[in-house]
Amino acid sequence: MNLQHERIAGLCEELRLPFVAQGYGAAAQKAAVLGTPYSDFLEGLLREEAAGRTVRKQSMMTRLAGFPAIKTLDGFNYEFAKGVKRSQVEELAGLGFIERNENVVLVGPSGVGKTHLAIALGYRAAQAGVKTRFMTAADLLLTLTTAHRQNNLKAVLHRAIKAYRVLVIDEIGYLPMNREQANLFFQVIAVLYERGSLIVTSNLPFGQWDATFAQDTTLTAALLDRLLHHAHIVPIAGESYRLKHQRQAGMVQPAGGDRATGDRV
Ligand SMILES: Nc1ncnc2c1ncn2[C@@H]1O[C@H](COP(=O)(O)OP(=O)(O)OP(=O)(O)O)[C@@H](O)[C@H]1O
């Protein structure tokens, strides 16, 4: 490395331009050979810096979000998912709902793609540089009860939870909560109300949510009021996608299938 390269590398470090530092040598050589105008050379380098930063931010946001797997909207089969309107999902994919602090609620039976769509929307947000976090309802409750026991609930709610622009809460309704857990859960919904976006999935119709929230109809009504005030509801029906392949292989009966005659899909 000659002295000028060293000085440029030093300045890039001082100014925090890692991608200029990385690309400068090759770009300078190429520009010298091609006789590239100075302004084009500079623009090219700055573009490399901007592109590098975008990719770095996308991967950091995706890592922070803690998705259990990456699922995309491109990988979603609309023909299989009954009741999902492609136009509604495409509108949500534009992420305007996050700017407006609106929620998305995906409701339907097991295996129909609720988590898939929730992750796909969350992943899209993370790729757009939005601070996103994925948690199952059980994980969230564990975090909250631990914080509560350690007298740390306020800090967790106001520093951690409130810092997310998008919080994905998966599988509401699978575990019934006791009164303390229901209260803690309510506080998350209240803290993010009109300040962030929730993407939640549930196997329960809203009329049965009090069964999850300690049979507390008042708390459940207040919670649903906040959750659904500015919400996009995506109902999904049909059979479990998990069983699709087994069904195709003739290993599983469709719901309501004729067992006596052994009819298979
Ligand atoms: N319409 C679909 N297109 C593509 N993949 C799908 C579709 N529906 C479900 N899947 C896939 O099937 C598996 C189960 O789906 P998913 O976990 O999203 O279901 P779910 O409705 O959240 O179920 P549960 O309530 O049991 O958690 C996942 O691997 C998911 O990617």
Explain the overall architecture.
This protein has 2 domains: 3-59, no CATH class; 86-245, P-loop containing nucleotide triphosphate hydrolases (Rossmann fold), CATH 3.40.50.300. A 5-stranded parallel sheet has the order 2-3-4-1-5. The protein contains 12 helices and 5 strands. The termini are far apart. The protein is α/β, with parallel strands linked by helices. The longest helix has 28 residues, at 38-65. Helix 7 (137-149) crosses helix 9 and helix 9 runs parallel beside helix 11. Strand 3, helix 9 and strand 4 (197-202) form a beta-alpha-beta unit. The protein has helices at 3-14, 18-34, 38-65, 86-93, 96-99, 114-127, 137-149, 153-160, 179-192, 209-212, 217-229, 244-248, and strands at 103-107, 132-136, 166-172, 197-202, 231-235. The chain binds adenosine-5'-triphosphate.
